[in-house]
Amino acid sequence: MAEGTLASAVAVVAQPEESEQEPAHASPETGHKRRPSSISDSGSKRRRTSDGSPSDSRRSPSQHATDPDSRRPAAAPARRGGFVAEERKRSKRLFGGLLGTLSQSSSNTAQKRRADIEQRQQAKLRMQDERHTEAKQKKKDDIIAERRLQQKELDRGAMTAKHKNLLQTANFLRTKTHPILLWLPFQLRPEDDDIIDKQIEEAKETIAKEEAEFEERWHGKDEKEDSERDTDNKNAPPDDATQENDGPKQHDPEESSTQNANDNTKLEPEPAAEEPVSSGNNEEEKDGSAAPTGTSQRNEDEGEEVMEEDKEDMLKLIRTNSINFKKQLSKMASKVDKINYTNDSRVERRSVILNGRNYSYLYGEPASGKWKATIFFLHGFPDLAVGWRYQIPHVLQLGFRIVAPDQLGYGGTDAPVDPKEYAYKKIAADFKQLATQLGESKIILCGHDWGAALTYAIYHHQRDLISHIITVCVPYGPPRAKFISLDDIVANLFPHWGYQLQFRSGEVEKVVHTKEEIGQFLLALYGGKTSAGEWGFDPRKGIALDKIGQFQPSRVLNGEDLEFYANEYTRHGVNGPLNWYRLTEINHTDEKQYVSQPNIEVPLLFIQALKDLALPPSMGKSMQKYVPNMTLDQVNTSHWALTEDPENVNRIIGGWLGKQFSLDGQSKL
C-alpha cells in the first residue's frame, strides 16, 4: 500500500508538468481535443471507475500520461479553481457597481446632513461657552453686591448703635465739669425737664441728618459702582473659550461638503449619514457625545470647579436669605402700626354679659383664621382697651387671637359705684367666663399698670386658666398674711405712692366732671405741663387740681388719641377708674389664702420701664425669687412704655412669644 500511494502521488504531480510541455510535441489537433474547457459541463465528463485502487496504483507513469481517461480527473481541480476566481471577480464588479450607484444617489444628502449636524454642534459649543462666561460674570457681580450689602449693613449697624446711645444719653442731665458725667435726680425740676427735652430734640435732629447723609452716600456709591461695572463689561476682552470657538475652528459648510465628497470616494457610507436629520432632540446633541475631545476634557476639568461654585452659591443664598430676613424683621419693627379707633377691619367691638355685668371688648383673629393661643390684654389707669393699640396689630400678625376688654369702670363697660364690685376675685371670675364662651381652656394674660396687678391676682384665683403671663411696669408681689394699709405703705415703704391717697380720697371726682376737665385730668397724668413748665402730676402728691385748664398736650397723649379718650371717659366719669385705688383691704382678704403658694409657676415675661417714677426698677429685685420661670427685659421709658416705645415693647413681646410657641401653634412647655 505504501508503494502504490507513492506511485499515485508521483502521477498527480507529474500531470501538470506534462500538460505544460505537451503543446510543443503534440499536434494542433491533438492539443485542441485534449484542452479542458472552462465552460464544459462537468456532468458530461466520464467519471473515473476507480479511486486509488490497487490496479490503478500499479500503472506506470507513462500510462498515466498517454491514457486520456487518466488525464481527465486530474484537470478537474484546475477547472473548479478557475470557476471560483471568475465568480469572485464578477461579484466584485457587481458590488462595486452597486456602491457606485448608491454613492451617486445619496452623497449630496449625506454631506448636507453631516454638515448640518456639525454646524449645530459648533453652535451648541459656542452657546455653552457664552453661558459659562455669563455665569462667571453673574457670580462675580453677585459676590460684589453681597459684600457691598454686608458692608452697608455693618455701617448701618454701627450708625444705629451710635444713635441709640445718643438717644439714651440725651435723657440724662450732664455735668459742666470735665469729664462729663451723666446723672438724674430722684425728682426732676421743670428746668431739668426742659433741658432733657431739648437734648432729645437735638439728638433726633442729628440722627435724622446722619441717616439722610448715610442713604445719600450709599445711593451715590451704588450708582457709581453700577456705572463702573457696566463700563468694565463693555471693555472686557472676550473669554478664551469664546475666542476658540469663534475663531479658526468656526465651521465652513463649503469646505466640509468638499471634504465629505472626497471621503465618500474612498470610504463606504456611514450608517449615521443615512439617519434622518434631528430637529433639535437628537440623542447625539442631548448627551454631547459629538463634542470635540478637547471640549469634553475641559468640561471634565471644570467639574470640580462647578461643584465648588454650587457650594459657594448655596452658602451665598443662605447668607442672603439671612440678611433679607433680618432686614424684613427690622423693617416690620421700625414701622409700628396701630389700630384705628373707629374703623379697623382687623378688630371688632363686642359686648358680653359676664356674671350680670356688661363688658365691652376688642376682638381680633389672625388673617388666616387660625391662632396659636388667645391673649387677654388688660389695661391699667387711666387707660382703655385701645391702650394696646400699638401691640394688637403686631400680635395678630404673629398668629395670636386677641381679647382686649375695657376694664370695669372704663369706656363701654359697666362702672359700678360700689368699690366691692371691683374686687380682683370677681373680675377673675368674669374673665374665666369670657374665656369659656370663646372656647378657651387656657389663655395668656398680658397686663399693664393695674392690669398687671390684676393679672397676678387672676393667676392665683384661676390657676388652671393661665398658661403664660406678660406684665409691663408693675412687678409681682406675693400675697401677704398681714394687712398693711395704704397709709402705712406710703409713710414707711413707698412715699412716691402718695398720689394714691389723693385718688381714693374723692377729691378728684369733685373737680373733674365735663369733657374739658376730663381732658385736663388725662393730660396731667400723661405728662402734660402748663405753659410755665409746671408738671400736672407729682407722684408724691397727685394731680395739681388747682391748675386744671392750664395743661398742654403731651407727647404721649394728644390729637385724636386725646379726643377719643375724653369722649370715652364722659360715659361714666372718673369715679369708676378711681375705685381701683380703693381695693387694698378687699383684695388682701381674698388673696391671703394663697400665702402658702406664693410662687407663679407659669412662664412670665416682665418688661420694666427704667424711668418709671412711681415704680422704680429697685422694686422688682425680689421678683425672681417667686417666679422661677421669669424673663426680665427693660425699656428706657417712663410709665407709658406701650406708647412711648412701642417698637421695643413689640420686639420684646414678639421674641418671647416666639420662644414659647412653636410654629405649629403648640406650646413648647
Number of helices: 24
Q: What is the C-level CATH assignment of the domain at 348-480 and 593-660?
A: Alpha Beta
Overall geometry: elongated
| Fourth-tier CATH superfamily name of the domain at 348-480 and 593-660 | Alpha/Beta hydrolase fold, catalytic domain
Do you know the CATH architecture of the domain at 348-480 and 593-660?
3-Layer(aba) Sandwich
What is the alpha-carbon Rg in Å?
Answer: 54 Å
Class by SSE composition: alpha/beta
Strand content: 5-15%
Number of strands: 12
CATH topology of the domain at 348-480 and 593-660: Rossmann fold
Give the low-confidence spans. 1-33, 50-58, 60-66, 239-307, 320-334
Strand order of the largest sheet: 3-4-6-5-7-8-11-12
**How far from one another are the termini?**
116 Å
Key features of this structure:
669 residues, alpha/beta, Rossmann fold, eight-stranded mixed β-sheet, two-stranded antiparallel ribbon, 24 helices, 12 strands, disordered N terminus, hydrolase, Epox_hydrolase-like, AB_hydrolase_fold
Describe what you observe in this structure.
The protein is α/β, with parallel strands linked by helices. Among the domains are: 74-246; 348-480 and 593-660, 3-Layer(aba) Sandwich (Rossmann fold), CATH 3.40.50; 486-579, no CATH class. The chain contains 24 helices and twelve strands. It has helices at residues 2-25, 28-34, 54-57, 61-66, 68-170, 190-235, 240-246, 253-264, 283-287, 293-301, 303-334, 392-397, 424-437, 450-461, 486-493, 498-505, 507-511, 515-525, 559-569, 575-578, 584-591, 623-626, 641-644, 646-660; strands spanning 173-174, 182-183, 348-354, 357-364, 374-378, 401-405, 443-448, 466-472, 537-538, 542-543, 604-609, 630-635. The strands form three sheets. The protein has an eight-stranded mixed β-sheet with strand order 3-4-6-5-7-8-11-12, sandwiched between helices. It has a two-stranded antiparallel ribbon with strand order 1-2. A two-stranded antiparallel sheet has the order 9-10. The radius of gyration is 54 Å and the shape is elongated. The termini are far apart. The model is unreliable at 1-33, 50-58, 60-66, 239-307 and 320-334 (pLDDT under 50).
